[in-house]
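re: that complex we talked abt at group meeting.

here r the seqs, copy pasted straight from the sheet so there may be weird spacing, ignore it
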Amino acid sequence: MPLTDTEAAPATLTVRSLLVWGLLAGLVGGLLAFGFASAFGEPSVDKAIAIEESAGAEHTHGTDPAEHHHDETAPAEEEEVSRAFQSTGGLGIGAVAYGLGLGGLFSLAFAFAYGRIGPLTPRTTALTLAGLGYVSVVLVPFLAYPANPPAVGKPETIGDRTALFFGMIGISLVLVIAAVILAKRLTPRIGGWWATVSTAIGYLVAVTVVAKLLPSFQEVPEGFPGNVLWDFRVASLGTSAVLWAGIGLVFAALLHRGLTKLQPQAV
Amino acid sequence: MTHAVALPTPVSIPVRQILPYALFAGIISLLALYFVGAEQGALAIFDGTYVHELVHDARHLLGFPCH
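got the structure back, here u go
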């Protein structure tokens, strides 16, 4: 630790250690999300794939030329990665890689937020950040463009759906950062409570307007069971919730441990 | 510092110190998210479907449009 100068503020953190904690938190969060997704997400994915394959077999009567694309992109028998591995190892690799990436970004966001977003303790700052991140990066974009299981969503709109989904995440993220900055500026004038409440409402109104203005997609195939769709979407929200909560809590714990270790040098 | 506080008051990290890390680690982190979220779906750096199939279930369950 480079913090040997006792005159310096002892709570000065290095970005390097934050990054390490973020990656560790992301690893743990990714593993936890993998466990949650295996237990609660895979059943609905399996059901959806069974529906997709049986629907593909029946599509001989379909006149939609798009069906040909679908047959090309999702050949049921010519898989490079077996379904068995997709639902276990593949899911794990995906969840952990995503967790590591998110953990890294989370620690960078924390580096900016630390000591800047109001009178919060370090651990509360970490959890607040995870909560804001989940709402703005997961929940709001999900409500605008909900997660879809296999068999839901037309292949020809994948480009538009991807662009709009990422666009919605970007807009939501910019608006939540603007809300936090605005809340900080308003606090001296109207107090922390009203600054927080008014900017939170402002954020929610703004993302609702944006979501309503952007195009939406109704691509659930006729006859697709509603309960499978519901189970999948709840499992999707849950997987992300476990991931973000895992990152926030593990990061907070590592941060607290790191700061407590620094303390004796300062006394 | 007084003994009364459990932890020292947070001191913000200067933005100048964060930026180099934010650039490098940020880009690598975004790449990880991109490969899980979109590679060989709507966008593709590599040809084929291997990445898409490998992370297929994670992509669906993390809420990304898959196909």
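couple things i noticed - Helices of chain A lie at 15-58, 66-73, 83-113, 122-144, 158-213, 226-266. Residues 158-213 of chain A form the longest helix (56 residues).
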